Amino acid sequence: MARSNNALVPDSDRYKITESDAWSWPFLIYPMRMGAWKDDSIKYYEIGNPVLWWASALCCCVVYPLQLIYLVLQHRRGTLRWTGDEFRQFWNASKVLWGGWVLHYIPFFLFGRVLYLHHYLPALYFGLLLLAFEIQCVVRWYLPERTMWPVAIAAVAIAGYVFVLFLPFTFGWDRPAKELTHLHAMDSL
After folding, report:
1. For 19-70, how does the pLDDT look when each residue is reduced to its tens digit (9 = 90+)?
2. Using 50, 70 and 90 to split pLDDT, how confident is the model at 1?
């Protein structure tokens, strides 16, 4: 299996629109186009929910590592507001989620084979769980208790709205692609 997997190397003479590099996956820089984009064909675009992709990428690549450095520095200075159990609970849950994201994402930088956006989906799963965990932690520790449900409802409403907005890409679009130009958020989308 490893031998056949390593034989799937990119063709350097030819550029394929479906191939992408691992560095571009978390921020959805090059979504994967599926099928032909002629006006009379059904068009699919592996884009998912851009808000969730970008928020989870920001959480995994920036927020969590900086938060961890900040908490370790606070702990060393003796100014950490949490009890030992609170910090241990945070650390045990977050290390599994962030570690799962890292273990499912980093190995693709070492591969010499053809890479596609769908290889990132297992890491995205852990990234979304870490994002939800971080939102819950922020609400629980830094906001009044009565704001928990409004924040949760707002997060679900935003995710639901963006899902409905990008629904034609997920389930297929059988009309001309020009009708989807209002969803143009980046040059690659």
Report:
1. 667 777 787 776 666 666 666 777 666 777 889 989 999 999 999 999 889 8
2. very low
Per-residue H/E/C for the chain: CHHHHHCCCCCCCCCCCCECCHHHCCCCCCCEEECCCCCCCCEEEECCCHHHHHHHHHHHHHHHHHHHHHHHHHHHHCCCCCCHHHHHHHHHHHHHHHHHHHHHHHHHHCCCCCCEHHHHHHHHHHHHHHHHHHHHHHHHHHCCHHHHHHHHHHHHHHHHHHHHHCHHHHHCECCCHHHHHHHCCCCCC
Is pLDDT above 60 for 12?
A: no
Contact (CB, 8 A) for 30 and 120: no
- Average pLDDT of span 74-81: 83
Q: Which two tokens stand for residue 97?
A: 């989620």
- Amino acid present at 75: H
Phi, psi of 29 (to 5 degrees): -70, -40
- Predicted confidence band at 138 (pLDDT cuts at 50, 70, 90)? confident
Mean pLDDT of the 1-9 span: 53
**Among 55, 75, 21, which Cα is nearest to 155's?**
55
